[in-house]
Each structure stands twice: as C-alpha cells, then as structure tokens.
Amino acid sequence: MELRHIRYFMAVADELNFTRAAEKLSIAQPPLSRQIKDLEEELGAELFERSPHSLRLTEEGLIFKQYAAQILELESKSKDDISEMSSGLHGRIYFATVEGYGPHLLASWIAGFHEKYPHVQYDLWTGTTDEIVNRIHKGLCDLAIVMEPFSDPDIESILVHREPWAAIIPRTDPLAKSKGKTIKPGDLEDRPLIIPSRASRSTEFRKWMPDPDKPLNVICRVAHLINVRELARAGVGTAIFPLAKGVMEEDDKVVVKEIDHPSAVASYLVVHSKDRPVPRAAEEFLGHIRNSLKGK
Length: 296
Known about the structure:
By secondary structure, this protein is of the alpha/beta class. The protein folds into three domains: 3-69, Orthogonal Bundle (Arc Repressor Mutant, subunit A), CATH 1.10.10; 76-160 and 268-293, D-Maltodextrin-Binding Protein, domain 2 (3-Layer(aba) Sandwich); 162-266, Periplasmic binding protein-like II (D-Maltodextrin-Binding Protein, domain 2), CATH 3.40.190. The chain is 40% helix and 24% strand. The protein has helices at 3-15, 18-25, 29-43, 59-87, 102-116, 129-137, 201-206, 225-233, 280-293; strands at 48-51, 54-57, 92-97, 121-126, 143-147, 155-170, 182-183, 193-196, 218-222, 238-242, 254-259, 265-273. Strands 3, 4, 5, 6, 7, 8, 9, 10, 11 and 12 form a ten-stranded mixed sheet that branches. Strands 1-2 form a two-stranded antiparallel ribbon. Helix 1 (3-15) crosses helix 2 (18-25) and helix 5 crosses helix 9 (280-293). The model has no long low-confidence stretch (mean pLDDT 90).
C-alpha cells in the first residue's frame, strides 16, 4: 500500500463519485477505479458499496477512512517537523483544545507568539479531554488543553486556568429569576440537564448534589459550546458548563449563574507527551505559555 492509494481512496470517499474524484486528482477515471480495486484486494474487503447510480462507504470503508485521515495527517506533520529542523522556526504546531475557556486561552497565546514568530502556522482541533488524550498518544497533536479530572503517566501537564462551573438557565425557568449570581447544586437536582459528553462528568456532578446516589435528569450530552448555548436558549434544559467568562454571556434567552459548591471548579491543563519529542516550534510555544503564566 502506498500513500497515493490512500490519497485516491480519500478523494473517492469525500466525493462518493469516481468521476468527480478523478477530476479532483487530475487523473482519468479508469486508472482511479483500478487503484481502488487494488486497494480493496490488498485489504481483503470492499470499501465501497457500488450501484449504477450511487456510491457509498461500507462499514469497512468507514473504518479505513478514519485510519487514512490519520495517516495523511501524520505525513503532513512529519514534513512540517523536518522542514522546521532545517530552516529555523517555521513549520506548524498541531494543537488540540477542549471547549469552554480553552479556545480563548489558545487565541491569546497564539496572538502573542505570532508577533515574535510570524512564520509559524497552526493546526487546531477541538474535542473532549478523552478524545484529545487519544490524539496525543497517536502523535496527532504536539500540545493540547484538557480539563481535570486528568491522570496519565505518559503525559506531562501544566495548570493554566481555573474557573467556576456555571448553569446556563433558560429565562422561562423560574430558577432564572432567583436572586443573586449563584445557585446551589440542589437547585438543579430534578431539572432537565444538558451536560458535557465526557463520561466522568455525570458522576462528578452527582457528587455535588444533596443525594449523590440519585440519578441526574440528563436530556442531552454535548461536546461543543455552541450546542450547549443553543439548547439552553431553546428551553430544552439547563446546561452545566464552565463559566468561560467573556464567552458564555447572558442574553434575552438565558441567564448564567455560578454553581456554589467547593468542588464546582473547572481546571484547565496544557499537556504534551513525555515519550515523544516536542518539535522546536511547539517547544518554544510551550515556553511562551509558561512566561505568560508568571506572576499569575
């Protein structure tokens, strides 16, 4: 199997049409079809379900597409790393971050670093802590922002930010009209809730409640801030999410109240692999982060 086979496969998988894929690759359609057939024979599985008027990925094709995307991403990353070694501080930093305050932190760091090193580029990816840790182990990102709870003996971490957990409450809920800027966890006990998709969050939130053994009334589990906000604005339920001050603001549909509990604190960490060398640009960026934390 060669990289060109993987590129050909990805083009067909993206277009789901051999003619358009061939045009995209600037090759004729028959050779492209032959290359895909060769790939399927090598893998011992059909990657596409073909019919006279449609083309779609088989289950094996969907799985192979995930691996193919990672292979091409690693190829691009390896080229950037080698280029950086031979031509000074250029290249690209592969960074992953959780939602909440993570993107705000990352944007402020990039803005300062870009002034000093304008030729460095950035490839950013957003997901949950568990997804990001998986990407670090696979070598798909150099640095990342994750949230506690976090423990991995193969990953180095630096605490960079703390903020309260908050409730994003629809204004139609009587709780939105309660006095003050904080609420108790017990106020949320029986309400329909929207919570982060990370598996450990439900258990964590239950520990804040007056009855930790009582299941939460979870309506939705979500990974991205925009979904959290829109679901709360639509009145689906109350969202529990990091405060993300300056990002998660009140409007005519929702109010935001901090959750008053000693454990209701969201902690953000910058992490990287202990075993895999960090490229020079990423190492300099890590130093930039450390300098920005001095005195805080």
